[in-house]
Amino acid sequence: xxxxxxxxxxxxxxxxxLMSSVDRELLEHDAIKxxxxxxxxxxxxxxxxxxxxxxxxxxxxxxxxxxxxxxxxSL
Length: 75
Hints:
The chain is mainly α and about 80 residues long. The chain has one domain. About 90% of the residues lie in helices and about 0% in strands. It has three helices and no strands. Helix 1 runs antiparallel to helix 3. The protein is rod-shaped, with a radius of gyration of 17 Å. It starts with a helix and ends with a helix.
C-alpha cells in the first residue's frame, strides 16, 4: 500500500469513528433527544460525516482497484 493509500485509509477510518461517536455520544443522549434544535444539528453532523465517509470510501476503493489491476498486469 502506497503512502497516499495509508493517508486515505486513515481519514476513512477517522470519519467512520467520528460518525459512530456522534451517533453514540450525541444522537443517543437524552439532552439531544429532548431538544429539537440540537437534535437537528447532531443529525446534520452525522449526515455530513456519512457523506464524507462515502466520498473518501469511493476514492479509497478506486485506489485499491487500481493497485490490484497493476498487480495483475505485472504477473
